[in-house]
Amino acid sequence: MDRQQEFVLRTLEERDIRFIRLWFTDVIGTLKSVAIAPAELEQAFSEGIGFDGSAIEGLSRVTESDMLLQPDPSTFQVLPWRSDGEHQGTARMFCDILTPDGQPARSDPRHVLKRALDRAAQHGFTFYTHPEIEFYLFEGPLQRGAEPVPVDYVGYFDNFPGGTTHDFRRSAISVLESMGISVEFSHHEGGPGQNEIDLRYADALTTADNIMTFRTVLKEVAGEMGLFASFMPKPLPGQPGSGMHTHLSLFDGDANAFYEAGAEYQLSTVGRQFIAGILRHAPEITAVTNQFVNSYKRLWAGGEAPNYICWGHNNRSALIRVPMYKPNKAQSVRAEYRALDSSANPYLAFAVLLSAGLRGIEQNYELPDGAEDDVWALTDAERRAMGIEPMPQSLEHAIAIMEDSELVAETLGEGVFDFFLRNKRQEWADYRAQVTPFELQRYLPLL
């Protein structure tokens, strides 16, 4: 037993923790959980906890159903809303999924990201991400099929005295930080009831775990206030969608591999090649970064959603932007990918973004000229003259492109790749067979 496991076991006794929730996700990114008693945890560390993998979407076939959950002690945190004096103490840990012979399950989304991170490590890189997570707050309880009612009708950065969202963000951030998740900013966004909370940068695996925790915390806090937090990309017609703009960087030890003193925007050759890789492979990975029918209503509904494949400095109409808030700080040079939405599976999304960027480095992709004009204001002819192509315009379109992608198939692995395609084809078929209210009935209660 290692020191981290010993710390967890000691903390359970000191804090009188009665239940440990073991968390993991399915391929679509739905959080799954099983609770065990403290007496079972030592065995869970050494042998894992058995479960039926075939009952989890995309995880295994019925003929390979026996799976094990291996708790990751480094992710141990007490759940504040279940350990407040009124409830018996509860903690959680994320798990890796193993086969009975102790090998990582190929369809475990967390393992998919770990494989991509191992590939980056072979180049000497650590991959860091920093998400800006947008979401809507609605009056609760939500009714299936009914249009949700926002908690307010104020706008971007508005300071609304006595507003519900002030109290909500303060409560949610307090819970997040009590669980070791650092928050950088929070504010009201442009839509009615729309908010944004930005997590501080961390390595991609930690960030992905934090995003899954973030969604759960916000839903818990919202429920306690009689509200509903939605991460649906486009819950309200005519209002802004919810994105998850994510800042990306590679570090070589303590040095930012994207930084080069004296280069244009201080962006190194590695940084330029990484961005070029994402741009070239953006159409292939979009079904993963924007996985729902509703995602494309955000991308193609106007506002600040990126719908053309280009990059730029300080240009929010571009798919990738190179911000320079602090031009003299080497650690701050990064790329911001703006298509990702708040309902993505973060493990798979980070894996395909990293793989696309690494492909650019490995094959020395050339970064095209940046777009410094407002891409949305250009005509189709002007965009074509600049070599700017559109993003996939529907889930059906994104699936068709992904289907032929060697890069995505290699990154996700055969099992995840095949299930993801089947699941998304079925989703598109279901959508085509239904009217638009189908989206509210299916997604809002889930997201």
UniProtKB/TrEMBL annotation:
Keywords: ATP-binding, Ligase, Magnesium, Metal-binding, Nucleotide-binding
Cofactor(s) essential for the protein: Mg(2+)
Keyword ATP-binding: yes
Domain GS catalytic: 109-447
PROSITE patterns: GLNA_ATP (PS00181), GS_BETA_GRASP (PS51986), GS_CATALYTIC (PS51987)
SUPFAM superfamilies cross-referenced by the UniProt entry: Glutamine synthetase, N-terminal domain, Glutamine synthetase/guanido kinase
Superkingdom assignment: Bacteria
Single GO term (MF): ligase activity
Sequence ranges assigned to domain GS beta-grasp in this UniProt record: 15-102
Signal peptide: none
Gene3D superfamilies: Glutamine synthetase, N-terminal domain, Glutamine synthetase/guanido kinase, catalytic domain
Family in the record: Belongs to the glutamine synthetase family.
Protein name, UniProt field: Glutamine synthetase family protein
Taxonomic lineage: Bacteria, Bacillati, Actinomycetota, Actinomycetes, Kineosporiales
